[in-house]
Design brief:
Blueprint (H helix, E strand, L loop, with lengths): L1 E3 L2 H13 L4 E6 L5 H13 L2 E6 L9 H6 L4 H10 L4 E3 L3 H4 L2 H5 L13 H5 L3 H16 L3 E5 L3 H13 L5 E5 L19 H20 L5 H13 L4 E10 L13 E9 L2 E8 L2
Parallel strand pairs: 1-4, 2-3, 2-5, 3-4, 5-6
Antiparallel strand pairs: 7-8, 8-9
Helix pairs in contact: 8-9, 10-11
The protein binds pantoate.
The site of pantoate (PAF) has 10 residues, from strand 2 and helix 8.
Length: 281
């Protein structure tokens, strides 16, 4: 396994691989790796000749300076974990390797087709702009045959699919199921910031979402959404930001159960913002 920080050095490695016609699996991450990331990497290793993992805490997708500053950074531990699962290349650049100073402040032009106006997009203005800005740059560097994304970031995944189509990347996007802790809590690098009592509190998020799946036959999407909101709000120390039952393709609020739907939630547990989602049909 090699660790590279400059796009030029990465380019040289990618050219070598491409010249042999071998496939490249790519897992973009912001580091602080957990079992969810490792599941993506293992899948990439199984399905491709080479696996590249990027580790880059992308400043342009944070709309909260404290969240950016507190985001865990653990390059050496991450590298050891990646070595164990046979990753070939770690690309861990610094911000100045990726962005010219002006680019950080610039708004990236991208037609989201409305996918960015709801849920995360509504509460984290500019977030998806930053995500598309970095993921498109990384795709240009790595030229992956397949790229692996977790379904925990459901809206991000929908936007990455749209980006791949609109920008005509020759990359297959592989959607990977949410990996959960035994308690049901969706794995996230942010979970590290939870105290043990906050962790107990946070377990209510998936418990309520799973319970709501069982009620789907008896309620409309609006009624079920209201049920989830009420139950989350009744848990002391959880602060709901949003819960939406949305069409999985358009991400617009679902008014019936005819099309596939997903229930997406964002909740603060203390000052840690957690997201999760479940499918209803
Ligand atoms: O999901 C993430 O960790 C990030 O949004 C990504 C895709 C690595 C882009 O910075």
């Amino acid at each position: 396994m090699i660790r590279i920080s400059s796009p030029q050095a990465l380019d040289a490695e990618i050219k070598k691989i491409k010249s042999t016609g071998k496939s490249i699996g790519f897992v973009p991450t912001m580091g602080a790796l957990h079992a969810g990331h490792i599941a993506l990497v293992k899948r990439a290793v199984t399905e491709n000749d080479y696996t590249v993992v990027s580790i880059f805490v992308n400043p342009t997708q944070f709309n909260n300076a404290e969240d950016l500053e507190k985001y865990p950074r653990k390059l050496d531990t991450d590298s050891a974990m990646l070595q164990e699962v046979a990753c070939d290349i770690i690309f861990a650049p610094a911000a100045q390797d990726i962005y010219k100073t002006a680019e950080i402040a610039q708004t990236f032009e991208f037609d989201f087709g409305g996918l960015d106006k709801v849920m995360e997009g509504k509460f984290r203005p500019g977030h998806f702009n930053g995500v598309v800005q970095i993921v498109s740059k990384l795709f240009n560097y790595v030229q992956p045959t397949r790229a692996y994304f977790g379904e925990k970031d459901f809206q991000q995944l929908a936007i990455v699919h749209r980006m791949t189509e609109l920008m005509e990347f020759d990359t297959k996007i592989v959607d990977c199921s949410i990996v959960r802790e035994p308690s049901g809590l969706a794995m996230s690098s942010r979970n590290e910031r939870l105290s043990s009592s906050q962790r107990e509190t946070a377990n209510n998020i998936s418990r309520i979402l799973f319970d709501s799946q069982k009620l789907k036959e008896t309620m409309s999407p609006q009624e079920l959404a209201a049920w989830v909101v009420e139950h989350i709000q009744s848990v002391p120390n959880l602060k709901l930001e949003y819960f939406e039952i949305a069409d999985t393709k358009s991400l617009q609020t679902a008014s019936n159960w005819l099309e596939p739907t997903v229930g997406c939630i964002a909740v603060f547990c203390g000052n840690v913002r957690l997201i999760d989602n479940v499918r209803y049909n």
